[in-house]
Every structure is written in structure tokens, then in C-alpha cells.
Amino acid sequence: RTRVYKFGGKKTDGDGSMKPLLGGKGANLAEMSRIGIPVPPGFTITTEACTEYNELGRKTLKELLKDEVESAVLGIEQMMKSKFGDVENPLLLSVRSGARVSMPGMMDTVLNLGLNDEVVAGLALKTNNERFAWDSYRRFIQMYGSVVMGVKPHNKEDLDPFEEIIDALKEKRGIDLDTDFTVADLKDLVYDFKNVVLKQTGKPFPTDPWEQLWGGIFAVFNSWNTERARYYRLINKIPNDWGTAVNVQTMVFGNMGLSSATGVAFTRDAATGENVFNGEYLINAQGEDVVAGVRTPQQITKLGSERWAKLATISEEDRVEKYPSLQELMPELYDELNEYQKKLETHFKDMQDLEFTIQEGKLWILQTRNGKRTGAAMVKIAIDSLKEGLIDDKTALLRIDPNKLDELLHPIFDTKSLKKSHVIAQGLPASPGAATGQIVFFADEAKKYKNSILTRIETSPEDLEGMNIARGILTTRGGMTSHAAVVARGMGKCCVSGAGSIQIDYKKRIMRANGKEFHEGDWISLDGATGNVYEGKVPTIEPELSGEFADIMKLSDKYIKMQVRTNADTPKDARVARSFGAQGIGLTRTEHMFFEVDRIKAMREMILADTVKARKQALSQLLPMQRSDFEGIFEAMEGLPVTIRLLDPPLHEFVPHQLVTQKELAEDMHISLEAVKSKIAELEEFNPMMGHRGCRLGNTYPEITEMQTRAIIEAALDVKEKGIITTPEIMVPLVGTVHEFTEQEKIIRNTAKQVFKERNDSVDFLVGTMIEIPRAALVADKIAEHAEFFSFGTNDLTQTTYGYSRDDSGKFLPVYIEKGILKEDPFEVLDQEGVGQLVNIGIERGRKTKPKLKVGICGEHGGEPKSVAFCHNQKMNYVSCSPYRVPIARVAAAQAAV
Ligand code: PEP
Ligand code: MG
């Protein structure tokens, strides 16, 4: 097996298609070298070698790599006519990470490898630049010392020890800039740096270049598994077993004087998508100076420089003198760079993010990759590239990362304010958006402030109203499908869940985060896209939906095969979803309507009723309310299909748990507090999710099904009078046996018949079922003899197939994912291997009985791109998702169909 691939010079082993093996950086270096872009020669050690290293360890891997690495270095030496470790004519190398997809800043890099006390003298002589040689040497010790040898600050408040030494010397010498150090200063730094290394690590700084090289290679491999890299992979869903490649490359120097420079450039604007070449550079500097922001970088183009000066309120005179663009300062090199950037974008057919270095008037391209971009830029670049003829319409569609569309639909923080803000905790990015508000700890106090952040250990259905009022929701417990997360996504509301480092004391009404106490009324801000919690107010901006967004939707419609419906419980949700292109409602969860203040009472009376008569009495109060809800929804949907599900959750969720409310209820119902309490205790279940819920409710209290059916049918008849013809789809939840369904069906059909007779009018309606219990999938052929449609409730189907409680999985799923026991949260991304089999069996058996059976999905997975693709492949008729995910599902469904 080959573990080392060479690039640059005459022979290049790899090419751009080999990203899995060579990593993004390695594959693109090879490709650039093939198309005649000047890249410093080097070689890539494969990602497979990284995986081998993780299994076999350093010693074995070094043995496996030794011959190939040594021969590759020899190749570079011959090309560059210099020698690694040579005192007279030294070759210096860089060692960089490069995973299959870029993980910017997450892994390690070491530059200037190959220097020691003798070689530095040779470098000075060879370049006739003593200052440059010693500057490179001190940088090398600094970087290698921290990356490879692990030199760290003593306390987390401290600077790293190297920076401390630099600052002390600057102070002593009365200078501000690194560039003001003399050769003698740099020699002092080298001496002091080496001492720090020895003191902190107990090991002398290695003088043997080969030892340095191997140290660098293994440090890069190790950096795949640092905490921050693992976390980055977790939130970006990058598998832990991919590994990183290592790129070893000839050093070229941007710090060799005034004819040298280094910079970063984008072929288009990564924030807005505008088609303008842009970027930053520094004269006489090395790459990390641009990124680290020690000096103010200058703009590459004249246009960019002018725009920048305007923002920074710098006069044109000052700009030209102090901050000239590369275009103005080195016009010929700029032209060459401009030519390469065009060539690279045309070749890779996407916006490129590239790094370059100019060494004494010679331009080198160090890396190129498809540039990271905002959601807005993603959409604009895809559509512009299509219009420019760079890509075809299928490619444009595939360029959209559906999940990123989310950013376009919610208010956002502007990046400038975020940089100035202080992170106090981090949780899961449960529902995107940006929220700033005052802390409240109880749902019923959400209205206390105009902008509140409902801050809870966890939320329950009782908190729904408060959640709706709050600007954002923060919980310290619970995962991506915790109640708070599901509801927040449905509302399109920003939510950070499971921020475990925060402690909440409900009694004292305080939360502790990052060593500080926050009280009710204190301002915090949530970033639902990253899971960051900030102290204080961070200003937000409203997103604007661009014309390109509509173009992407049009493009999706061209290819999409499935319909996209929405999960909506209110006319408002329904309207939002329609504005995003929803073609119907796939799930109305009727229970959410019962939580409103004026209804919960009647609901509670119904639940606490001792007799059928009393229950019917309470239900009759709920009937007109439900009817008007359904009317509102039918009107909002104007004849598009609407699926309404009968009552599902365990009744215990509706009863009051606070003493005050229990007292009120007792008074209202003219019964004793004790009676209320004992009834509530009676309703308590050990395992409510598996208990008295779903159709088990309707089958034990048929009058609930009767009332709900009546409300649905009467509402349909009412809107019919207004000219809206709707065909309600009445859905029975949590069916496991045929009889559970047919019993409910009987009640529904009889009730409808009764209403038609009373009203002397009728409407068409369907009776179908959710498939969310494994047994239902297995007997789908029998259920399909009766049910007129299936809707897969993959939330419950996941819960019951895995045996993972939806509400408790937050305790172990993050650990499972961290340890690689699971690749993804199955409540977020449908588990195609297991749960998917049941879906497949359900559809196959259902359609064996009824070939035209209408099948959809209404679990949270209906808005998750990979799961949507699965639904397409399973030939479902539709997916249904929360309103704000409708555009995402449309694009994902279209992508699955191209
Ligand atoms: C499901 O179980 O997937 C579903 C849609 O129903 P709920 O989330 O309301 O249980
Ligand atoms: Mg369910």
C-alpha cells in the first residue's frame, strides 16, 4: 500500500478526486500542480496512515512510513537543489494537516522545520539575510514548542510563555512591532525560548531535523483527536474515523524583505456571495501573521482597499501611503495572482479560498479549497455560477447545503458584535436563530419582559405558551429531540439545549455560568446556530430573503418528486409554512391547542372527571374551541390536504403540578383538593411514553375521539359553506394492532355519519394511521386493509425500535456519539439501517395490500436532508416537517431526485 503521494515538480502522484485518501488540501495541491499552478513541491501522507497510526501507534507507523518519506524528501531536495538539515544550503519544510473536508483552525501546523543552531547560520548565509534566518528560527521554536512539545500557558488567564517573553523584550526595548526586533533581539528570543521548552517539558529542543520532521508528522496525526477537533466534528457531523492527511511541503518565505509577502484570497465574497476577487495580505510576513491579526492586513484589490478604508475611515492619502493594495503595490504579481484565481475557480467550478506567498518577487500558491461561506453567499454563488454558465442547474442545486438555508430564515447576530461578546456557556445548537433577552426561569413569567429568554433545566408541554412568548429558550438538560428542541424548531424559535455547565437554582432564581451568577432579568444572548450562550445583549439583524433564494426554490420544484408538507398546529404556523412552499399539513398535533389558558381548564376537568357523563360535559366545552382551531387551519390551507391527529400524549402531562393551580382546579370543579391530588397521583405512570397514550386513550375514552372527529368534520362543513373544499385526513396515533385502529375507525366513521345527518351535508374525509410502533410496521399489510394512509412517526418509531427514551436520551447519546458508539443522534438523523428497515417493511407490506397507499413521514426526520433523501428512495408521497424546515426539505427532496 502506498502511504506517500508526491506533488509539485514534474511528477505528481495524486489528483483532485482523491480527497478521501489525500485530504482536501493534499488532493488540491496535486490538482493545482497538474494544471500548472506554481505550488512548492512536497508530499502527502494519506488519511489511511492516520487511521493506522491510531490503531498501531507511533513506532510501527514510523517503520511503515520511513522509506517512503525519506525517498520523498530526497525528491524534493533534488528539485529544490538543497538539502534538509544541510548547513550550507538548507531545505526547510512545513508540516500541515488536511482532512477530507476542511476543519479550519482545528488541527495543527508546523512551519520552518529543519532549523537548528548550525542550519540557521547556513540559511542566513544562503539568503544573505541574517534577520530573516533568525526570525524564522524563533518562529519555528515557538510553533514546534507549543504544537509538538506541548508548551502551554500556566493558567488559563495567562498568555503562552513565548508571547510573554516577546512582550517583555518589546517592553525592555521600547518597541511595538515584531518587525522592529534586531538580529541580536531574535537571538536572545531563541535562547530564552529554548529554555522555556526545557523548563516546561524537561526535554531539550530537538536539534536533529529528522527528529523534528517525525515530531511534526505525529503531532498533526495527534491533532485529529484534540478536544476541539472532536467537538468540531461533532457539530459538523464529520465522522471520527476519517483521519487527517499530513502535507509536508517546501517552505517558501513571505518574510524575506520588502519584495516578499503572504496572503489569503477568495475568488468571491464569502459573506455576501458577490462576484468580486478579494482578500488580505501582508508585506514581509509569514502566513500566521495574517490570521493572528498582529498587524493590520492590507487588501489585495484596489476596490477592496477603497471599501475597507471607507469603513475604517481612513483617508485616501493615508490608504495609498500606509495600506496600499497588492494591485497597486505589485501590479505584475497581482495580475499573475488574478489570473490564477480565475483559473482555479474555472477549474474547480466553485468559489475558492486560497493562500499564497510571494518570495522575493516569485508567486507561489500554497493551497486552495472550496471556500466556506454564509448561507446567503451559498445561495447567491450557486445561482450566479449557474447564470454565468460555470455550472449546470443540477450542479447549482447540489451546491446548496439544505441545512444552511436555515440561516436565511431566522434573525441573526451580526458577526462583528459576536466577536466582541463574551461566551458564558455552550450547549447544543437545537434550533437556529439569534435571541437576546432577559432571563426568566418560569414559563408563566415569560411575559414579564418584552424580550425574555426562558431558562430552564428542561421544558415540558406545560411550558408551551411561555416558550412561544419567549425570544429564545435555554435548557441545561436534554438533547436535539428534547421537548424544548422539538417545540422550538417547530416555532422557528432560537433554542440552545443541554448547556450542562450552567446550574440553575429555581428557588433562588439564579443561574451560575462560567463562575458568575445571573439573576432573573439579566440579559443574555443565545446563538442557536452554534449553541453559544453570551453574556449581555448582542444586537441581531433580520434576514432578507433574496431573489436567489426564490431561484433555488424554483430549481428544486423542477426536480422534486415528493410533496413537502408541514407539521403545523395553528393557522399562523400553517401560513408561515405555505409562504415557504408547503403543499399541505402532514401533522396537526391537536394536544398543543389544549395548553392555552382558557382551554386547559376544560381539559383538566375532562381528565379528572369520574364519570362518562362528566367527561362528556367537559368535552362539550372543548368542542367549539377545537372546531374553530380546525376552521382556522382549513382556511389557511385553502383546500390543500390537512392531516389531523387525534389526542396523543399521556393525560398526566395536562394536569397541574403546582399546589396553587391544583387548589384553583379544586375550586372550579367543586371538589376537594385531596380529590384533585389523588386523581393526579392516579394518573402518574412509571413510563408514560409507553403508557396510557395515543389510540390507547381513544380506545378507553371513546368520547374523546368522538369530540375530536365531530370538531374536524363540523369545521370542514363550515369552511365548505365559505367555498373551501377540504378533505380532512384523520389520523390515529400509536397503533400497534389492527384492532386498535379499526375500533377508532368505527368511532370516527360513525361520528362523521351522525354529523352529516345532522347537517344534511357531507365532505370527503380519510381515516389513516401513524406507523410509529414496530409492530404496526410488521403488520402493515393488515392495517392497510383498513387505513387509507400511513404516516411514519419516526420519533416514536426510533424511541421504540432502539428502546431509547426520547426524553432521557440526552443523558447518554452525547457520550455515545463522542465515543463513536453511534455516529449520529438517531432522533435527528433517521437510522436507515435499523429503523429504516421498519419503514421499508411498513411501506412494502402496506402497498402490497393497497398499491396506491399514500405514505408520508411526520417525525422530526422529515426536515433532515439525509432522511429526506431516504424517504425519496422509499417512494414516499410526502415528507412533513416544521414550517421553517420546509425550504430545507424541498431542496433536499429535489437533490435526492436529480
Ligand atoms: C412521531 O412520533 O414521530 C410523531 C410525529 O409524533 P410525536 O412526535 O408527536 O410523538
Ligand atoms: Mg409519535
Question: Which CATH architecture of the domain at 560-590 and 622-646 and 688-897?
Answer: Alpha-Beta Barrel
Bound molecules: phosphoenolpyruvate, magnesium ion
The gross shape turns out to be: elongated
| CATH superfamily membership of the domain at 560-590 and 622-646 and 688-897 | Phosphoenolpyruvate-binding domains
Distance between the termini: 36 Å
What's the helical proportion of residues?
40-55%
Spatial extent as radius of gyration: 32 Å
What order do the strands of the largest sheet run in, or round the barrel if closed?
A: 14-24-23-16-17-18-19-15
Report on the biggest sheet: 8 strands, mixed
Average pLDDT confidence is 91
Class of secondary structure makeup: alpha/beta
Q: Which stretches are poorly predicted, pLDDT < 50 over at least 5 residues? A: none
Please report the total strand number as a whole number. 33
Number of helices: 36
What's the assembly state of these chains? single chain
Give the percentage of residues in beta strands. 15-25%
Description:
Residues 450-531 form the PEP-utilising enzyme mobile domain. Catalyzes the reversible phosphorylation of pyruvate and phosphate. Its EC number is 2.7.9.1. One of its GO terms (molecular function) is kinase activity. The protein is of the alpha/beta class and 898 residues long. Among the domains are: 261-373, ATP-grasp fold, B domain (D-amino Acid Aminotransferase, Chain A, domain 1); 411-541, Glucose Oxidase, domain 1 (3-Layer(bba) Sandwich), CATH 3.50.30; 560-590 and 622-646 and 688-897, TIM Barrel, CATH 3.20.20. It has 36 helices and 33 strands. The protein has an eight-stranded mixed β-sheet with strand order 14-24-23-16-17-18-19-15. Helix 19 (464-469) links the parallel strand 17 (452-456) and strand 18 (472-475). Helix 4 runs antiparallel to helix 5 (130-147), helix 24 runs parallel beside helix 28 (702-721) and helix 28 crosses helix 29. The longest helix is centred in the last third of the chain and has 26 residues, at 612-637. The chain is elongated and about 100 Å long. The protein starts with a strand and ends with a helix. Magnesium ion (MG) is lined by residues 733, 772, 793, 795-796.
